[in-house]
Amino acid sequence: MMRKTVLASQRLVVQEGKMTDWTNTLPLFLDHIWDQLEQGAKDRSGAARFVSLATAGLSGGGNTRMVVLRGARRHDAMLEVHTDAASQKAAELAHDPRATVLVWDAAAQLQIRLSVTATLHSGADVKDRWSQVPDNARKVYGGTPAPGQPIAAPDAHTMPRTAPARFVVLLCQVTSIDALWLGPARHHRAQFSNTDTWAGRWVAP
Questions:
Q1: CA 54, 58, 61, 63: dihedral to nearest 10 degrees?
Q2: Mean pLDDT score of the chain, rounded to an integer?
Q3: Cα 72–73–75 angle (5° rounding)?
Q4: CB-based contacts of 86: which residues, under 8 Å, 6+ apart?
Q5: What confidence tens digit (pLDDT) does each residue in 73-121 have?
Q6: What Rg do the C-alpha atoms of the chain give, in angstroms?
Q7: For residue 186, is pLDDT > 80?
Q8: DSSP letter at 45?
Q9: pLDDT for 141 beyond 50
Q10: What is the H or E stretch that residue 35 is in?
């Protein structure tokens, strides 16, 4: 079995006994990207734990917000995010499922942009995921009034104990990745797409 160790420098990996700079090798660059995504989904301190999700606004323009990355699967290029069915992003993705996920890894000086196509899942389809949501986190689903509606004071809204009908899982199919590493002397940028089996190519930063 191939063993890979990432050193503290965030640039070098020891693979099969050899030291390699992941910023100079397309396959290792892609490995590092998915390592960061998978770590963020599992670890609250991961660089990709909180990511930016950008959607097309219903009235034009774009909207972006920070969301928690709940899942990342490389084998089928899937990211998972949870939201309230009454949220603006749910309405926007129902209208136009194309979106962008942005990650900034400060330690590695790495920006990752992922183009995704989102599908919304709720009800019986996500019963297993709802059962794993802690009680204190369930309170954010189903508040009154709905997210984004005007209120008279900061606390003039209710937080119900449970509202499973408003719990939505966004499964975001990654279709392409654009990654930019901000090196101290040179910047390296790579693009990967599902149209070429993620082989990747270098592009000017």
A1: -30
A2: 90
A3: 160
A4: 146, 147, 166
A5: 999 999 999 999 999 999 999 999 999 999 999 999 999 999 999 999 9
A6: 19
A7: yes
A8: T
A9: yes
A10: helix 26-42
Q: How would you write 113-140 as a 3-class SS string?
A: EEEEEEEEEEHHHHHHHHCCCCHHHHCC
> In this structure, which amino acid lies at residue 175?
T
Q: H/E element holding 110?
A: strand 110-122
User: Angle 40-110-76 (CA atoms, 0-180°, nearest 5)?
Assistant: 50
How far is residue 126's CA from residue 59's CA, in Å, rounded to a whole number?
30
Residue with the two structure tokens 């309230």: 84
Half-sphere exposure for 123 (CA within 13 Å, toward CB): 2
Coil, strand or helix at 159:
coil
Cβ contacts of 49 within 8 Å, gap of 6 or more: 40, 41, 43, 68, 69
Task: Say if residues 189 and 172 touch (Cβ distance below 8 Å).
Answer: no
Residues 6+ apart with CB under 8 A from 72: 34, 37, 38, 40, 41, 48, 78, 79, 80
SS3 percent helix, strand, coil of the chain, rounded to 5, is: 20, 40, 35
